[in-house]
Amino acid sequence: MRIRLDDRILARELRKKGLSFSEIIEKIPKLSKSTLNGWLKDIELSQKQKNRLLARIRTGADKGRLKGAFANHQKRIEITKSIISVSRVEAQEKIADPFFITGVMLYWAEGDKTQERVGFTNADPMMIRFMMKWFRKICNVPESKFRIYLSIMTLHDQNESEKYWSQITGIPLARFNKTHIKPTLLRGRRNPSYMGTCRIVISDKNLFRRITGWRLGLLENFEKLPS
């Protein structure tokens, strides 16, 4: 049986030759289209290859795949609109809650706004501690969904930094991803209290949409204030 790494290599070779997802799956039947999408999204096709795939769609060879992809895309759009709409109203109802407002504003400033993944990065331990509490209390994020990514320099002690941020976040080291270590010309810390940068990641598209709705709801409220 072919190992998964070989499947990925073969799939990428076939895609570079201009084959469609359906054609690749015919040659590697155990693969799903979602897996292929993750493996092949960085491969650019030539215009000749794109024209060939369009011809397959027009002739019906890949028509079913196109219909399914379009239907899923439309469904995703409707779900996103619905969640954002409800969240905008929630923001109006929570406008008097300073804890809610502060978290939304901090996320607006420092959080991810693309790719529908919740992410917040900062080097300030008090800010990270606050946002962890906000995610837990306001967003009701279950502990299993939190992932922590650290970025430190070669002058840092990796174990010390990881233990430090584990205490700050309350997240066990088992849910820390591999720490990114950046080279530096400095020989010692200019700020002994600096322990690197901590990034909180929550893979939850619906939560991302809710936070987007809260942000838009607050913006609407602020725009109503007299200038």
Protein architecture, described:
With about 230 residues, the protein is of the alpha+beta class. It folds into two domains: about 5-60, no CATH class; about 85-225, no CATH class. It is about 55% helix and about 10% strand. It contains nine helices and four strands; from the N terminus they run ααααααβαβαββα. The protein has a four-stranded mixed beta sheet. Helix 8 (about 160-170) links the parallel strand 2 (about 145-155) and strand 3. Helix 6 crosses helix 9 (about 205-225). The radius of gyration is 23 Å and the shape is globular. The chain starts with a helix and ends with a helix.
Key words describing this protein structure:
227 residues, alpha+beta, four-stranded mixed sheet, 9 helices
What layout of secondary structure does this protein have?
Elements: H1 4-16, H2 21-27, H3 33-40, H4 47-59, H5 63-93, H6 98-110, E1 118-122, H7 125-137, E2 146-153, H8 158-169, E3 180-182, E4 197-202, H9 205-223
Parallel strand pairs: 2-3
Antiparallel strand pairs: 1-4, 2-4
Helix pairs in contact: 5-9, 6-7, 6-9
Mean pLDDT: 86
The neighbouring-strand order within the major sheet is 1-4-2-3
Which word captures the global form?
Answer: globular
What's the structural domain tally?
2
Distance between the termini: 69 Å
Query: What is the count of DSSP helices, taking H or I runs of 4+ residues?
Result: 9
> What is the H/E string?
HHHHHHEHEHEEH
Strand content: 5-15%
Structural class: alpha+beta
**Fraction of residues in H or I helices:** 55-70%
- Over the alpha carbons, how many angstroms does the gyration radius reach? 23 Å
